[in-house]
Amino acid sequence: MAGEDEVKLLGFWASPFALRVMIALEEKGIKYEYIEEDLLSKKSPLLQEMNPVHKQIPVLIHNGRPVAESAIILQYIDEVWSNGPAFLPSDPYDQAMALFWVDFIEKKLILPGRLIFGTKKEEQEGGKRQVIESLGIREETLKGKEYFGGKTFGMVDIAFAPVMCFFHTYEVLGNFKIMFEDKFPSIFCWMKKCRERESIKKLLPQQEKVLQLVMQFTKRA
Question: Which structural domains are found in the chain, ordered by start?
């Protein structure tokens, strides 16, 4: 059985991409060995061996075989382990839409959010604008739903949930307020509901700790 196999995860505690994989493993009830990578210093030989192309986390190692890229890892986990909730809907079109929104979260929310950490004002303003615009788009698709897929916590929720611990950092370093309760009430309610889930309560780092880490990274840049 897959559930009895050897599973390891190479990750970093504040990486939204590693966190989404950790949440997925917790939701499925999969036992795994977590191996923390020190991204502030040299990448480990194991990481370079398991992901020789990109040399980035996260990497899931299942029975000695590596799977890289968080969205691909989420699909892999969902297909290999049938126990626990299904992350993707059964309908092919709905699956495609879920994967589209996972990609959207990375390209239109996480990556623009990193611009806010920079020192150039133009980049910061562009990052803030893109984050707000992307949240507005996500707000519209979430209206009237408990989760992004409807009533079931799934792939898009798993991909988005780790970003919650970065919003405070966006606000502090970008010197602005996102105003979730007023401008994005559906997302605000969704975040409250997500924080009640055991997997997220267990894994999401404190916002202040994330802020301190990002400030440490920016000083080294």
Answer: 2-80 (3.40.30.10), 92-220 (1.20.1050.10)
